[in-house]
Amino acid sequence: xxxxxxxxxxxxxxxxxxxxxxxxxxxxxxxxxxxxxxxxxxxxxxxxxxxxxxxxxxxxxxxxxxxxxxxxxxxxxxxxxxxxxxxxxxxxxxxxxxxxxxxxxxxxxxxxxxxxxxxxxxxxxxxxxxxxxxxxxxxxxxxxxxxxxxxxxxxxxxxxxxxxxxxxxxxxxxxxxxxxxxxxxxxxxxxxxxxxxxxxxxxxxxxxxxxxxxxxxxxxxxxxxxxxxxxxxxxxxxxxxxxxxxxxxxxxxxxxxxxxxxxxxxxxxxxxxxxxxxxxxxxxxxxxxxxxxxxxxxxxxxxxxxxxxxxxxxxxxxxxxxxxxxxxxxxxxxxxxxxxxxxxxxxxxxxxxxxxxxxxxxxxxxxxxxxxxxxxxxxxxxxxxxxx
Length: 388
Description:
Oligomer: single chain
CATH class of the largest domain: Alpha Beta
Number of helices: 11
Shape: elongated
CATH topology of the largest domain: Zincin-like
Number of domains: 2
Mean pLDDT: 77
Strand order of the largest sheet: 1-2-4-3
Radius of gyration: 25 Å
Low-confidence stretches: 328-378
Order of helices and strands: HHEHEEEHHHHHHHHEEEE
């Protein structure tokens, strides 16, 4: 069924993600069969038909153990994935007293939509990036790098936080963590088998070597296909969701210009040197490129900005040059600027030169082909709202 409007696209994406994750879990069983086929071919050579039947029987017998082992792997990752991510990124939780500026921005966004405020963490890294992690409301957290805090003004930081909150709200974070966990099982098993082969872990005992050779090729083919599919599925889960997270942030903050300028500042400056690829896939931007963009986990920044301009308006300043490290990001705004709030205008020095919510017209998520009559309600990633 075709998806119309932002909300229906999110629902469609969730259904596709669930289907992909089920398929990804089934890859574990494919690898189990491939391993059984290798063991039979190298341990007791026979005609190919006999080996495939033996491997199938071995796989069926091993299914309970494979399932339990995979579930244990998932359980360990469920409880300890955050600790492992914090360890490799150097992130630590902060309080309102430690980071009042960032904490207030996040809390105000959550209060405005009535959602639970996730934990806030900071990675002491000069890179400009952020990511959300967690499997449920008690675990959800948003990690922001020190470089991002120092280089972005309040409106831009708010947009990045809105981007990550949308990932949490849409279920992207939970889905991606599960995909990374299961893909880890696939990668681990495939690497284990190849290492055993390369190190001579399996030895042929004679018999029908031709049949065994064909079976070995089939097993290798299954392992390679499963490994490649696990990678492609992981990338598909993250790549398509960035557009929705950008749109959700703009709808939440009503400030497409801030989201665009934040992306321009992050562009090319988001590399977390100590973070593995699985963590980079969760970030606002992943600058790591593979195979000429074929396996990139994120759309290009330019494509994301083009989508924001097309559907939400705003202006693209083009690639931005940032101030030297340590220079206050708030100083980039004119010193005589003023912000209009619910209680009247406020001087720029009280807002850090960047209004918390700049007066930008509300975003409409209506599909062009739908009726534009006044008073009609539409539903975005943050629930029903009135267009007028």
